[in-house]
Structure formats: C-alpha cells, structure tokens
Amino acid sequence: MGVLDGKAVIVTGAGRGLGRAFALDAAQQGASVVVNDIDADGAEKVAAEIAESGGQALASAGSVADWDCAGELVARCLKEYGAVDGLVNNAGVLSLTPPWAETEDSLRRVVEVNLLGALFVGTHAVRAMIDQGSGSIVNITSSAQLGLATMGAYGATKGALASLTYSWSIDLRGYFVRVNAYAPVAATAMTDMSPVVPPDLPEPADNAGIVTYLLSDLSDEISGQVIQRRGNRLVVLAHPCLTEHGADADTWTVDAVVDGFDPVLREHREAVGYAIKRS
Ligand SMILES: NC(=O)c1ccc[n+]([C@@H]2O[C@H](COP(=O)([O-])OP(=O)(O)OC[C@H]3O[C@@H](n4cnc5c(N)ncnc54)[C@H](O)[C@@H]3O)[C@@H](O)[C@H]2O)c1
C-alpha cells in the first residue's frame, strides 16, 4: 500500500532534478504520474524509468508558461487517469543577476516560467479539482523569497508563490482543495549554477517525502503552509503579518510621517534578508 494509491498527480519540470525525484516518489507511493517538462527527452526518460520500476506514468512535453499547453497538460491527466488529485508546480528557472544587469528578456523568462507557469497550470488544475471536490497543490518555492543578493527577480517569483499559496488556500478550502508550498534544498543543475552553494547539499530524492506527504491524505488538515528545508530540518515559514508597531495621525502629511517614523516605525524596522525569527 502506498500513500498515493489511486491518485493522479502532475509534476511540472520533472525531466530532471527535484521534479524527477518528486515524480519517482509519487509513483513509488502508488500515484499515476504525468511527467511534464519543456525538455521532451527528459520527460520521456523519467516516465520510462517509472514504468520500468512497475509504476504508472506518461510524459507530457511542453512549457508551463504557455496557457494552452498548461490546459492540455491538465486535460491529458484527466483523460488518461480520470482525475487530477495532485499538482506539483515545480518547473522553474534561476537567474543570478543584479538588478542593474536585468533585461526585458531575463525578467520575462523568470516571471513567465516560475510564476505564470504555476498560475497557468494551477488555474486549469483548480477547475478540475473543484469539480472533483478534492485536490492538493504543492508550489515549489525557495528561501530566495526571504531576500538574497542577485536573486531579486527569482526571489520575487518565489515570494509570489508563497502569497499564492496563502490566498488560494483561503479561496479553495470550501472545495476541499489544499494548497501548500515547499522550499527545497538539493544538488541539481540549478544549484550547480550558483557561486555560493553550501557543501554537502542533500540529494533531490531526500526532498521528496515532504512533497508526497503534502499530496497525500495524510496531510488532510494542512493547507496554506510554507515548509522550508534548512540543513536537515523542515521548518515552518512564518507568514508575513502586521506587527503591533504603528503610529496614528488624523492626516498623514510628511511632518506626521516624520513624527511617526521617529521613534516608533524606525525603531521597529525589520531585519532585511534571510533571517530566523526568534520568539
Ligand atoms: N535545487 C535547489 O536547491 C532549489 C532550492 C530552492 C528552490 N528550488 C526550486 O525547485 C524547482 C526545481 O529545481 P531544480 O533544482 O530541480 O532545477 P533543474 O534546473 O534541475 O530543474 C528544473 C526543470 O524545470 C524544467 N523547466 C524549465 N522551464 C520549464 C517550462 N517552461 N516548462 C516546463 N518545464 C520547465 C527544466 O527543463 C528542468 O527539467 C525549481 O522551481 C527551483 O526554483 C530548487
């Protein structure tokens, strides 16, 4: 018995790296898996790997950043497997670029794949899940959303995926569709690009258990959460929230803002960049 027995799951960007690991683990746990990637060969290889080890999978090549392609991906899962029980929005591209060196093309590429891709496949999947009255979406985000140098555009797309997770979990809870996010750490082609990779990164497969858990009914109370891997720990990421530190004025003139900033708002500035909240 696998924890995903009888479920149909789509994993985007699953032709290699983390997506491949998520797809293999989901299949090993009993899911029928649609293996998407823009790299058709990669998707075919992973689907074949799953079939060779006795699992059920099909390859679906195409870009998540294309609305029609995203629709066809979801339609294919419905047609072949009769449902869309799970979606892992994993397809992503990294750009390590300081803000002044970005171009229209570099910005569009990151936003279109990482954010629009998840929105496009997610929107089509959500419609199927609402009809079914169940489903689980896992958005693959990143610690870059917390603020890391040269990762402004990439981190912004990943922060947007966290915001999407919060909002969609609210929109969809009445339909029994759950939405969570996971920020992995693994040695992949993407981390090979980074000049500041910590040593001894975990294998992609060591990130798959949490994604399978979030896809499965074992996590049926869990929605709207962002879980991050830090070393060998899984950590709950705090949601952005209002603090109790504020200032009041009848009219917010510049003088009133100056009075408000000194001392209250200035004194309670937040740490900038990757930080751990201490209670
Ligand atoms: N590796 C890490 O430590 C790490 C850390 C944080 C977040 N992530 C996220 O995990 C996800 C997987 O990253 P990875 O490390 O396995 O990288 P990777 O580069 O090995 O894999 C990304 C996959 O996405 C595919 N892809 C790219 N554009 C696509 C598109 N338009 N449509 C469909 N597929 C597309 C690629 O062909 C590739 O197979 C990404 O979203 C990444 O941002 C990775």
Give the helices and strands, then pairings.
Elements (H helix, E strand, L loop, with lengths): L7 E4 L5 H12 L3 E6 L2 H13 L3 E6 L5 H15 L4 E4 L14 H29 L2 E6 L11 H21 L4 E7 L5 H4 L15 H8 L10 E5 L2 E4 L17 H14 L12
Parallel strand pairs: 1-2, 1-4, 2-3, 4-5, 5-6, 6-7
Antiparallel strand pairs: 7-8
The structure holds nicotinamide-adenine-dinucleotide (NAD).
Small molecules bound: nicotinamide-adenine-dinucleotide
Give the number of helices: 8
Unreliable stretches: none
The SSE string, one letter per element, is EHEHEHEHEHEHHEEH
Number of strands: 8
CATH class type of the largest domain: Alpha Beta
Task: Determine the structural class based on helices, strands and strand pairing.
Answer: alpha/beta
* Rg calc: 20 Å
Mean pLDDT: 95
What strand line-up does the widest sheet have?
Answer: 3-2-1-4-5-6-7-8
Q: What is the number of independent domains?
A: 2
CATH topology annotation of the largest domain = Rossmann fold
DSSP strand (E) fraction? 15-25%
Inertia-based shape: globular
The helical percent reads 40-55%
Tell me the span between the first and last alpha carbons: 41 Å
Mind telling me which CATH architecture of the largest domain this is?
Answer: 3-Layer(aba) Sandwich
